[in-house]
Design a protein that fits this description.
By secondary structure, the protein is an alpha/beta fold. Helices cover 37% and strands 24% of the residues. The protein contains 10 helices and 12 strands. Belongs to the shikimate dehydrogenase family.
Length: 279
C-alpha cells in the first residue's frame, strides 16, 4: 500500500483523506492518506521522517507551502512561478514539488460554475502561499487585469514581481480599496476568517452587476467573506470546496497517472456543507 499524507496545521478536520480515499477506490489503487499536524519550522524534519516510513507523496497546506518549496530538489514550472508548493512526490529519495492550486481553482470556476475568466478585471486579496498558487493560473486563464492587495504591501509587491507581467498584474494598498474601482472577480486568499466571528470589512464599491466572489477557504473560515458577498447582493458566490477537490485530483494524477472523476466526490462533500452560491 502506497503512503501519502497532508502536512499542515490543525488538519484533523480536513476532508482531504476522504477525497483521496474516494479517488483511490475509483482507480482501484491501494493507498493510505493521512493528515499530519506540523508546527511552523518543522516541515523539513517531518518530511524526512515520512519518507523514512515509506511515504511517497504529500499535499501541503497552510502555513507550509513556501517551506515545502524550499525543501524540493526539483520543481514544476508553475511551482517555480508561484514560489510555493502544495504537492510533493518522492523521486529517488528527493522531493519534486508542484502547485495544483491554480489549476484546481480555474477548473472549478470555468467547469463547475461556468465562469468565463477571459477579459475580467480581478482583485486578489492576500499574497501568501494560497494567493501565489492561484495568481499565475488566473493570468493564464485570460484575466485582463489582476490587482493584488495585501495588508503587508511588501508581500504583494513580491508576488507581482514574480508574475513578471507589470501591465496586467500590479499592486495597490489595502487602505485604498474604496477608491480602486470595481471588479468582475473578487478573490479572497486571506485567512481573515480564522479569527472566529471576525467581520471582513470591504467596500461594496468593489462590486458591479457582474462581480463574482470567490473564497479560497471553505467551511467556517469562509463565512465572513461569503457574508460580505451576500450583503453586497452578488449573484455568483463560490467557496473553496470545489477548488479543494479539483486540486486534489491534480495531485492524484501527478502521483498515479490517473485522472479521477471529481463530480461525485464534490457532491458527497457538498451534502454536508452549506451551499455558498445565491444563484
Amino acid at each position: 500500500m502506497s503512503r501519502y499524507a497532508l502536512f499542515g496545521r490543525s488538519v484533523a478536520k480536513s476532508p482531504s483523506p476522504q477525497i483521496h480515499a474516494a479517488f483511490a477506490r475509483q482507480a482501484g489503487i491501494a493507498m493510505e492518506y493521512v493528515g499530519l499536524d506540523v508546527e511552523p519550522g518543522a516541515l523539513p524534519a517531518a518530511l524526512d521522517a515520512f519518507a523514512a516510513r515509506g511515504g511517497r507523496g504529500a499535499n501541503v497546506t497552510v502555513p507550509h507551502k513556501q517551506a515545502a518549496f524550499a525543501a524540493c530538489t526539483r520543481l514544476s514550472a508553475r511551482a517555480r512561478t508561484a514560489g510555493a508548493v502544495n504537492t510533493l512526490r518522492l523521486e529517488e529519495g528527493q522531493w519534486y514539488g508542484d502547485n495544483t492550486d491554480g489549476a484546481g481553482l480555474v477548473r472549478d470556476l470555468t467547469g463547475r460554475h461556468s465562469l468565463d475568466l477571459r477579459g475580467r478585471r480581478a482583485l486578489l486579496l492576500g499574497a501568501g502561499g494560497a494567493a501565489r498558487g492561484v495568481a499565475p493560473a488566473l493570468l493564464e486563464a485570460g484575466v485582463r487585469e489582476l490587482v493584488i492587495v495585501n495588508r503587508s504591501p511588501e508581500r504583494a509587491d513580491a508576488l507581482a514581481d514574480a508574475l513578471g507581467e507589470p501591465g496586467r498584474a500590479h499592486t495597490r494598498y489595502w487602505e485604498d480599496l474604496a477608491g480602486i474601482g470595481d471588479f468582475e472577480l473578487v478573490i479572497n486568499a486571506t485567512s481573515a476568517g480564522r479569527d472566529a466571528g471576525a467581520p471582513l470589512s470591504l467596500p461594496f464599491a468593489l462590486c458591479n452587476d457582474m462581480t463574482g466572489a470567490v473564497d479560497l477557504n471553505y467551511g467556517e473560515v469562509a463565512i465572513p467573506f461569503l457574508a460580505w458577498a451576500r450583503a453586497a447582493g452578488l449573484r455568483t458566490i463560490v467557496d473553496g470546496l470545489g477548488m479543494l477537490v479539483e486540486q486534489a485530483a491534480e495531485s492524484f494524477e501527478i502521483w498515479h497517472g490517473v485522472r479521477p472523476d471529481t463530480d461525485p466526490v464534490y457532491a458527497l462533500l457538498r451534502e454536508g456543507a452549506p451551499e455558498p452560491a445565491t444563484a
